[in-house]
Every structure is written in C-alpha cells, then in structure tokens.
Design a protein that fits this description.
alpha+beta, Archaeosine Trna-guanine Transglycosylase, Chain: A, domain 4, 5-stranded mixed barrel, 7 strands
C-alpha cells in the first residue's frame, strides 16, 4: 500500500470501479471549485467514495472507507456554470483520514492494489460489510450530491473505460479445478455474467452485452464484469472491498448466481 497523500474527494450515491465510466453533471459551487482545482493539477484525478448512509448535502453522511481514483477524460463548462464531464475509474484507494470539507471534500488516501495488506481497515469494515449484504438485495446505483449516470448504459462504456484504467497486478486465484489458472476462472465468470445479462435483457431490465470487448488484464476484466452486471451499489461496494482477485471472483460468482435465481423466479412468475 502506498504512503497516504491528499486528494480531492467526490462522495456519490453510487460506486465507481476501476475501468468504469463515470459521467457527471456538476452544479454545486464547491464541486465546481473541486473540478477547477483538479484540472490545474498535473494529473486530473479525484477520489470517489460511496455514501453508505445519509445525505452528503448538509453533512451527517457516512462515507465508505474504500473508493476509486477517477481521471477526467472529457470536460465541458456551460454558460450557466454547470459542468458536465466524463471520468474513468483507474485504481482502488483506501481512505486513511477525512480532512476539512472546506472548500470541498478532501481526504488522505492510499493506493490499495491487490495483495497489499489492509487488515485493520478490513476488521473495521466488518459491520459495514454485513449491512452491504442486506442493502445489496434491493438498492440501486444512483444518487449523490450531483448526478452520476451509471447503471445499464455501462455495458456500452466498458471498452472506453479500459483505455483509462491502470490497476495493479493480479494475485493468484484459487477457484475452479486445481489445474485451472486465473483466466479459466474468469472466463467461466464472464460466461455467467453474459448469461445473466441475456436473461435480464429478456425481462427488459438491461441492454445486451453483445460482443463488447473486455480487458485482457484479469483484474480489470473482473471489475468490468462487475460494472456491466445488474448489481446494486452495495453489492458493487462489496466487490470493491474484496482484498484480492481470488476473493473478488468468488464473491462476484455468488452475487451473479443470486441475481440469476431472482430473475429466473421473476420470469417464471410472469409466465404463470
């Protein structure tokens, strides 16, 4: 894990994953200042974390301790001062400490690549993980202080997200047959995700994934599969919190299977 460094932060009601495209419409004055500050920096990056409970506007919100770096790749300032921009998730971070929110939210963060230890924070996240399991069954993935437009359209954005992402190296994965490598397990996961998306599309819930290209990097491909899957924000947060690639694949397999069972039941109910 890297040494902590200060970073402008954009809390949202959704979860940004590495490789994920994040369209934003920024109208709140302090977040316009944040964007201006980020664009003047050597790297046009800010951090994004999910608001787990409460509302960011007016304070009193509870923010996740794990988030993602977002790099601005497109930007437009309109005559009324509203900013529209597109960012791409690049790498996972952990929030070490929150700083003063004036003039905009800031935090001390550290990069958290797969394989880097985070035992103390994982223990602290334990109760929140349990809450995520309960919330993930029913929640959506939108909201926040300004409008984040993620959701079904992410399937069309996977290829664009891959170009801007820079995750750390993958760790060994232990799922599937003993002689199966990481790619074999992730190939199986991809087939499951594609089957789930096809089923969801039949029910009119999400567009089909079709033949959208996915990254050749194992770590990024798993994040992309989590992005295009019809999961809620708390389930995506569980994916982001998973310490390494092996556990992330296993968790995502479980989440996909749960969603598949729910959608199969929904289809059966509709046919009665």
């Amino acid at each position: 894990m890297s040494d902590p460094y200060e970073l402008p932060m954009f809390p949202l009601g959704s979860v940004l994953l590495p490789g994920m495209v994040l369209p934003l419409q920024v109208f709140e004055p302090r977040y316009r200042v944040l964007v201006d500050t980020v664009l003047l920096a050597d790297e046009p990056e800010f951090g994004s974390v999910m608001i787990e409970r409460g509302n960011e506007v007016g304070g009193g919100d509870v923010r996740a301790t794990v988030g993602c770096i977002a790099r601005i790749v497109d930007f437009t300032r309109h005559e009324d001062g509203v900013v529209t921009m597109v960012a791409v998730g690049t790498r996972r971070i952990t929030v070490e400490d929150w700083l003063d929110d004036d003039p905009f939210p800031r935090a001390l963060v550290a990069d958290w690549p797969d394989g880097a230890g985070r035992a103390a924070d994982q223990a602290a996240d334990g109760p929140d993980q349990a809450a995520d399991v309960a919330a993930g069954a029913a929640d959506g993935a939108d909201g926040g202080p300004d409008q984040a437009a993620d959701g079904p359209d992410q399937a069309a954005d996977v290829a664009a997200g891959a170009a801007g992402a820079a995750p750390g190296g993958p760790d060994p994965i232990g799922t599937g047959p003993a002689d199966a490598g990481p790619t074999d397990a992730i190939d199986r996961l991809e087939r499951s995700v594609r089957d789930l998306i096809t089923l969801a599309a039949e029910l009119g819930l999400v567009p089909t994934l079709e033949d959208a290209p996915l990254s050749a990097d194992d770590e990024l491909r798993v994040y992309q599969l989590a992005t295009v899957s019809p999961l809620g924000a708390h389930d995506r947060l569980r994916v982001l919190r998973s310490p390494g690639l092996a556990g992330r694949v296993e968790l995502l397999e479980e989440l996909i299977e749960e969603q598949h069972l729910l959608l199969e039941a929904r289809r059966s109910f509709g046919q009665e």
